[in-house]
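Subject: design request, 375 residues
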């Protein structure tokens, strides 16, 4: 006679888990230069634990994992309210809306934030369904660096295919200006100025490579995203602006310039997954076919990414001197106990090269080398 096992009780979602995720994002915002978001998120974590308005806004997301970026979705929804004039009491502390913030203002900014969430729960909860598509144009510095590394000596047009393009702003990376001391590349009059592109100095090979290719020839530009954003639409532009941290004025200015370029030079971003997108890509004689992406790998399911790797291997295998292929990525990797955001390139079926690393928003970069305790 067997004994039937009783069903396990359903596990209650944990506000403590959610609060921990929010605190982790708060610390990351502090490290990346946003004292406003650091202060607000630490208080939002306390509000979730206490069952306040933030807990109500985030109900159902208690088991969210890091890649879901729930804290950033919450912040983006509130920032959109500020940018559209629907949160004037909070706008006082948001530099993106003409306000100002110092850490001494945290005690006053938090009640305004909490009240904004409480008064706009349907809006905030709807915003949580949107992935945080920052489309950070500062990462273009790394992508162009990778492209300059794999370009052949002679002139060759580039066929560019980007994975996880969001609004496709970085498909226009060659129209941005990257500068660091005496180093410069890209149109001098570009509305996107990536100043301080390198922390100290660029790698020694980069200035000669930039001088050899002062202007890049793009024959094609295509991107894919499951939920692409139209940067020319008011809703699309608002979504992009809302995900830029409001106390980082240089990022705000770079995005404004990129939106200006996007209005003049629309690009093709298809609403398909990365693997399906790549299945239609082939190498072509007389052009360099490039696949690149930046800070999107974490959002792709494992099975989908295995399919992507299969397509990349197919393209690499088809590469030849007359029809070359290159793969460029700026993504996080674990080195020991650290996550570092690194630029890698792989020309054809050759070995991968790790070129540089940077903060997640892309600026400044520095040549890749051993981290603390690694060498």
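Subject: RE: design request

Done. Sequence follows.
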């Amino acid at each position: 006679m067997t004994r039937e096992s009783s069903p396990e009780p359903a596990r209650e979602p944990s506000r403590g888990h959610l609060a921990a995720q929010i605190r982790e994002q708060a610390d990351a915002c502090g490290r990346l230069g946003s004292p406003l978001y650091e202060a607000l998120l630490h208080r939002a974590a306390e509000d979730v634990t206490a069952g306040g308005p933030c807990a109500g806004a985030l109900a159902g997301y208690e088991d969210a994992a890091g890649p879901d970026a729930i804290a950033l979705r919450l912040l983006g929804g509130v920032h959109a309210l500020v940018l559209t004039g629907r949160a004037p009491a909070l706008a006082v502390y948001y530099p993106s809306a003409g306000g100002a913030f110092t850490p001494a203002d945290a005690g006053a900014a938090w009640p305004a934030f909490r009240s904004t969430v409480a008064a706009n729960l349907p809006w905030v909860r709807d915003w949580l369904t949107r992935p945080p598509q920052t489309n950070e144009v500062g990462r273009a510095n790394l992508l162009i660096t990778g492209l300059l590394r794999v370009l052949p000596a002679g002139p060759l047009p580039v066929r560019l295919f980007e994975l996880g393009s969001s609004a496709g702003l970085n498909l226009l990376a060659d129209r941005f200006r990257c500068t660091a001391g005496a180093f410069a590349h890209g149109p001098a009059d570009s509305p996107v100025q990536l100043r301080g592109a390198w922390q100290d100095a660029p790698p020694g090979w980069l200035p000669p490579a930039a001088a050899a290719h002062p202007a890049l020839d793009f024959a094609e530009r295509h991107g894919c995203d499951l939920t692409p954003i139209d940067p020319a639409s008011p809703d699309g532009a608002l979504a992009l602006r809302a995900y830029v941290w409001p106390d980082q004025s240089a990022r705000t200015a770079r995005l404004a310039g990129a939106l200006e370029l996007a209005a003049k030079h629309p690009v093709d971003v298809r609403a398909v997954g990365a693997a399906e997108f790549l299945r239609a890509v082939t190498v072509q004689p007389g052009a360099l076919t490039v696949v690149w992406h930046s800070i999107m790998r974490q959002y792709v399911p494992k099975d989908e990414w295995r399919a992507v790797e299969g397509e990349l291997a197919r393209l690499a295998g088809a590469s030849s001197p007359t029809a070359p292929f290159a793969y460029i990525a700026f993504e996080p990797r674990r080195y020991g106990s650290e996550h570092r955001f690194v630029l890698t390139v792989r020309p054809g079926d050759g070995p991968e090269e790790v070129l540089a690393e940077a903060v997640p928003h892309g600026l400044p970069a520095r040549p890749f080398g051993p981290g603390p305790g690694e060498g």
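The mean pLDDT is 93.
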